[in-house]
Design a protein that fits this description.
The protein is mainly α and 98 residues long. The protein folds into two domains: 36 residues, no CATH class; 34 residues. Helix content is 45%, strand content 0%. It is built from three helices and no strands. The protein is elongated. It starts with 27 loop residues before the first helix and ends with a helix.
């Protein structure tokens, strides 16, 4: 390993020249703006919300036969069990409300 470049864990971007792929210099101000963007808007993990904000979670117990039918329907259709359960639940509510 070459001793020419040593990284001690910190870079003063205003003293060291670091260039971006487009040739612009990356400064401390750029690094600060990037860190704020990451901390204020963390990456989204998981599926997008199904409603505005956080999707509510609905949970209930069902017979094991329902679980088996759900797994079979998901395997046959190539859709997720959650997707099929949401659709079935919505259709069931439509029938009850009618």
């Amino acid at each position: 390993m070459s001793d020419k470049y040593v990284f001690d864990g910190a870079i003063d971007l205003d003293a060291e020249m670091v260039l971006l792929p487009d040739g612009r210099r990356y400064t401390e101000a750029d690094a600060w703006a990037d860190s704020l963007a990451v901390t204020q808007h963390p990456p989204v993990i998981g599926r997008p919300s199904l409603s505005r904000g956080v999707s509510p979670l609905i949970s209930f117990r069902a017979p094991s036969a329902y679980k088996e039918r759900l797994a079979a329907a998901a395997a046959k259709s190539g859709r997720s069990q959650a997707d099929i359960a949401r659709e079935a639940f919505g259709r069931g509510l439509d029938l009850v409300a009618a």
